[in-house]
Amino acid sequence: MPKIIGRSLGEHREQVRARVFDVLRSQLYERGFDAVTLAGVAVEAGLGRTAMYNHFPDKEALLIAFVEDEAARYVERLNAAVDAAEGPVDRLATFVRLQLRVLAEYHLPPGAALASALDPSAYRRISAHADPITAKLHEILDEGVRAGQLADEDPDLVIGMITAALSNRALVDVPPDQLEPSIETAVRFVLRGVGATEAPERTTELG
What we know:
Layout: H1 9-31, H2 38-45, H3 49-55, H4 59-84, H5 87-105, H6 114-117, H7 120-127, H8 131-146, H9 155-166, H10 176-193
């Protein structure tokens, strides 16, 4: 019988998954999805092949589970940071800062794009994790319009433009000492675009 990590089977499962996800995270950003194998992840994580298959039947299942875990952690972090800010303008500025800091932390995996590397249904499942983030941005914009602090524009169009701006890696692929000024430039740009002319000073701890 395999050795149990932790005090229960549930805790064992969570610790194994955390260890596997740490290895996968490193391999994705060092090698790309195409080069990742279940066997390779299992070896680096200190698991037998059978134990690995008990948790993840194939590479796509592993990637989906990893993205779901990462997304859930990020959404929790995003909600806490945004909800701690005062007023819609500060909340939007906090949203922009955190989105760009996360973009700076996590580089896109090299190799084939996930859209072409995964089965369409698997890719749609991964893409669905953007929904809570989009919903949070929609909530901020709606609050700002109701408060008269943001321009009353079509929120779907505005969200599309904000999302496009914040996905530009040129904003964060800068020397470390230029990252914060670049992020603050993006904050001012987004706020001007939605009718809030001044960015509030940073008062919210983003974690």
